[in-house]
């Protein structure tokens, strides 16, 4: 929300700091670069000291960075504050999906992941909408919006302290049905059976351990945890997830949606359009509508399709590639929205949540033991791609026009979604 909210204030920043449009847009995009770098720092820290501790420290740092942004008196000071803000905000991108994978069951994972993605993506649309009202009607303009974000950051710190559990717990390894059957045969001959009336007590961690502010893993090497994700870059499922999550939400959304937000604000406020800041902010209502629809399609509907497929199989045969079938209902809407952006801005937002949410659920299921490393790679690449595209967005649009920009995004979206087919076919052959 704080990262994209200033996109409607580009003309105000140009006047206040006497900088050209390209410099102001580049200032706003540096947070994406440090979002990419921050993922390499916060995730190993969360594995070493616990997710609650990492989230609390990062949110406190982000609150301080927002105060710095709101009180910045020079362009260089605002640039440095935006970099710190992006670095601190990276913790929520990889740690929160890992919390979802730790806490919720397999049949709930897509629905819970869709809620996470809609909040992340909805912030990029809700931020400019709220910021546009403050820029137009409040005397402190964009600084008032940053103070609002600071208040939300403080509220997040309180919520993390009260309701966020620590999920860095040593869980028992689940055996396969074959191993369980063999172990039962061996144990029945060596140990007497438990009485029928006896209850089996599940192994759960005490509340004190779950709500502990710090949980140190003394056996974990921080350097090794930092470089471990790099070995997954050669795996097909990880490569596809990186490309899809980098191409669909951050080319059409952060380069279609945010390119529209970051570059169209100056275009639409100038003659002959003469849009107000509020009118530009209201464009994000279409994005919010798309996010809400995609929350159902990429979450609840995906879980229902996956559950229906699994019911037809033998017990215990749960395949990760079955999740890819749920891409069929809406996989074409995101790329189509790039071509029809003028009348279907909502389609871009729908596709930017629908397909990536299913891709994340598939990726965390396929590489369940290495879900953290996969999410680190996905977030690092997606934010790096967002920074590179948005950094040159103004020059690209001014030189080639919007038509070429969105045609490139359309082609990338089609190619990445089509990559699910070979993954599905290869996964079936491997099982058979």
Automatic annotation (TrEMBL):
Molecular-function GO terms, alphabetical: transmembrane transporter activity
Composition bias, Polar residues: 175-191
Listed transmembrane segments: 27-47, 53-72, 115-138, 144-164, 232-253, 273-302, 323-342, 348-364, 376-399, 405-426
Domain named Major facilitator superfamily (MFS) profile: residues: 1-432
Membrane topology: Multi-pass membrane protein
Pfam families associated with the record: MFS_1
Region (Disordered): 175-202
This protein's GO CC annotations: plasma membrane
Annotated keywords: Membrane, Transmembrane, Transmembrane helix
UniProt main location, coarse: membrane
Entry's localization field: Membrane
UniProt-recorded name of the protein: Putative MFS transporter
